[in-house]
């Protein structure tokens, strides 16, 4: 019945909802499926047009640097491990050097023992001299390599001061020639040379030599105590008080007023005494720094002193005699 109502001359797609232009446009934009793909077709499906993203407007805010990231815990642990490993390697190298040094010294000691033992070689006196050498001194054998330079400098400092004392005798003699009232200074200059030369060698240089040779804390403390007194002597000699037997600055200025040549000679000697004082202070600080690296301490010095005293045969004999005398007196007192 509906076929009779339809207009045969009308468009058949007019009332078809699937032929609407809005619907057909959407269906044409849908990409074709695999079943509609024709590999023999020459026509290529047009690619969809690329849409440009809108460019962002330039920011007016000031630039801010992002904070650096902190290293992770793993990196810190790895770094600490590397530092600890480097420290262990450094200590191992030091121990190997010390072991090699001990081996070298032991071989040299064995060679000396095979050759007849160590013989005193200082002071170097001729063979026909009535008095022989009193000490044995060999830096390469007795002193470790890292301390040899310091000990040699201290030895040269002792020699420098000895030469200064010797020159001081001639300075006081020249002063005595222009001023007959300076005979006391000339006599004291000779006394200081004869007194300080051996005493300084025995009292502070040999303890220093023995301290570095055997790593003795007790000898270090002996050196420090005596060397402080020695530094005070250097200062007094550089000052040069009149009547003390030293051509220091005060005596040199007095000598310049009496005779210019004698005064110049005394000024040179005063400069030598001043150099001795300055070098002594510098070397004292250096030796003290080395002492702190050797592991020496006051407790070790006390132990070494007690051990040395108790092992001394003279002390043991005296203690035994004192104990026996006390026991006999106590026994006699009980009988009475």
Automatic annotation (TrEMBL):
InterPro entries hit by this protein: SCAMP
Main localisation: membrane
GO biological process, one term: exocytosis
Top-level taxon of the source organism: Eukaryota
Species of provenance: Xenopus laevis
Topology within the bilayer: Multi-pass membrane protein
Region of interest (Disordered), residue spans: 1-66
Keywords: Coiled coil, Membrane, Transmembrane, Transmembrane helix, Transport
Protein name: Secretory carrier-associated membrane protein
Keyword hit for Transmembrane: yes
Sequence intervals crossing the membrane: 155-176, 188-208, 220-240, 260-284
């Amino acid at each position: 019945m509906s076929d009779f109502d339809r207009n045969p001359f009308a468009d058949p797609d007019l009332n078809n909802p699937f032929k609407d232009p809005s619907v057909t446009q959407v269906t044409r934009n849908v990409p074709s499926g695999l079943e509609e793909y024709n590999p023999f077709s020459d026509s290529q499906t047009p690619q969809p047009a690329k849409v440009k993203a809108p460019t962002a407007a330039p920011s007016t805010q000031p630039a801010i640097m992002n904070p650096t990231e902190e290293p992770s815990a793993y990196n810190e642990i790895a770094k600490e491990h590397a530092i600890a490993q480097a420290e262990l390697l450094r200590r191992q190298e030091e121990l190997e050097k010390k072991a090699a040094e001990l081996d070298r010294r032991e071989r040299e000691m064995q060679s000396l023992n095979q050759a007849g033992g160590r013989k005193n070689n200082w002071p170097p006196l001729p063979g026909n001299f009535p008095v022989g050498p009193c000490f044995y001194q060999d830096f390469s054998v007795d002193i470790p390599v890292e301390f040899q330079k310091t000990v040699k400098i201290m030895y040269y400092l002792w020699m420098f001061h000895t030469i200064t004392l010797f020159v001081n005798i001639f300075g006081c003699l020249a002063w005595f020639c222009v001023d007959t009232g300076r005979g006391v200074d000339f006599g004291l200059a000779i006394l200081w040379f004869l007194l300080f030369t051996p005493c300084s060698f025995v009292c502070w240089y040999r303890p220093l030599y023995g301290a570095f040779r055997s790593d003795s804390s007790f000898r270090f403390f002996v050196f420090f105590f005596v060397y402080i007194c020695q530094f005070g002597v250097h200062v007094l000699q550089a000052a040069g008080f009149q009547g003390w037997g030293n051509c220091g600055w005060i005596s040199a200025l007095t000598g310049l007023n009496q005779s210019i040549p004698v005064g110049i000679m005394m000024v040179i000697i005063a400069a030598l005494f001043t150099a001795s004082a300055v070098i002594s202070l510098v070397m004292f600080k250096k030796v003290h720094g080395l002492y702190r690296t050797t592991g020496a301490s006051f407790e070790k010095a006390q132990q070494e002193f007690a051990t040395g005293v108790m092992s001394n045969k003279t002390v043991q004999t005296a203690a035994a005699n004192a104990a026996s005398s006390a026991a006999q007196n106590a026994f006699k007192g009980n009988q009475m």
